[in-house]
Amino acid sequence: MPNDKLPLKIAIATYGHTAAVKDGRAPIEGVAPDFVEISPIIAAFRRMVRDVEFDVCEMAPATYMIARAAGAPFKALPVFVFRRFHHGGFVYRDDAGISKPKDLEGKKAGVRAYSVSTGIWTRGILQNDCGVDVSKVTWVVDDEEHVTSLRLPSNVVHAPEGQSLVSMMADGSLQAAFTGPAGIGRSGEPKEGWDASNARQAPGYTEMFPDTLAAERDWYQRTGIYPVHGLIVVKDELLAEHPWLAKSLFNAFVKSKELWLEQLKRGVVNSDTDRHYQAMSEIVGDPLPLGITPNRPAIEALIQYSYQQKLLPKHYRIDELFIDPQAA
Q1: CA 110, CA 112: separation in Å to the nearest integer?
Q2: pTM for this one?
Q3: How many Å apart are CA 20 and CA 40, to the nearest integer?
Q4: Which DSSP helix (H) or strand (E) runs through 278?
Q5: What is the pLDDT of residue 268?
Q6: Are 231 and 81 in contact (CB under 8 A)?
Q7: Per-residue DSSP letters for 76-121?
Q8: Hey, CA dihedral for 169, 173, 176, 179, is it positive or negative?
Q9: Which of 1, 12, 135, 185 could form a disulfide with 58 if both were Cys (CB 3.0 to 4.6 A apart)?
Q10: Which residue range or ranges hold the SsuA/THI5-like domain (predicted)?
């Protein structure tokens, strides 16, 4: 490792478990970081896949896989900075003739963009766990895909001019939709204040999986899959020129997570995100496992789902998509 620190432009959100990386308590050895604040962080994903604007960047894992398959010059570390299950947040209208997942076939469902990770995970559950032929659902989108070269399946259509998922769900043009940022909880492309537009669930919309917590717990116990929803990518040229960099970054995130877990154990809870991971730990134990081995079921599932949904041209091996900083 050289004496002069490597300057890196880094775009990651501030979570409890990343805070120590950003404030210097968990330094990245050999690196002089320039942290760029972007809100919402989703906007950074788009800037990275289109312009490779940052040296290190947080990114949705499916967006990354699609971009990598299209030739993007960056590779992922097995550092997963956001996790959640995906049985909640998919709703249907009470007058839609839907009472079970299989009833979605022949219907229209709204999702912000076809390649958003939330959509991929939930469609994967519907297909592989509930027997739904997701190709028989018309998926209506009202935003661009992050990766502009992505060719979408024929059952994906854009909302008509002047309409949004919110308006289409309200007037019955859609029978189902994702809530929150993945669907009817926002409008337009990611921009400042976008998350604040998170709409309240309208009356007359029902969760596809009503006992969400029980469904999540059962699914995890059966499959071992704890969905990944955010990871860290690094420019290929930097990884090639500085072989120590991957491990240095990984170690910093491990240290930051350790400091955060110690804080939680002391009862210091600073945000809804902290509370979210406290709840997750009751199901999975470690709420933010890092590295390839503990995350293998989730990584393999996301690759499988993305391939099934025609978002990847082949079923990739993990080592084609991830660098393992713990490998000998």
Answers
A1: 7
A2: 0.92
A3: 20
A4: helix 272-284
A5: 87
A6: yes
A7: EEEEEEEE--SSSSEEEETTSS-SSGGGGTTSEEE-S-TT-HHHHH
A8: negative
A9: 12
A10: 60-142
Name the token pair of 256.
């930051």
The third-level CATH classification (topology) of the domain covering 6-84+226-321 is D-Maltodextrin-Binding Protein; domain 2 (3.40.190)
For residue 224, give the nearest of 284, 290, 279, 278 by alpha carbon.
284
Give the mean pLDDT per block of 10 residues along the chain (328 residues): 86 96 97 95 92 97 96 97 95 95 98 95 97 98 90 96 93 95 76 48 79 94 96 98 97 97 89 91 95 97 97 97 88
Which own/partner pairs from 294-300 qualify as long-range (CB within 8 Å, at least 24 positions apart)?
295/78, 295/80, 295/226, 295/228, 297/223, 297/224, 297/225, 297/226, 298/225, 298/226, 298/227, 298/228, 299/78, 299/228
Contact (CB, 8 A) for 288 and 259: no
Fold of 90-222: D-Maltodextrin-Binding Protein; domain 2 (3.40.190)
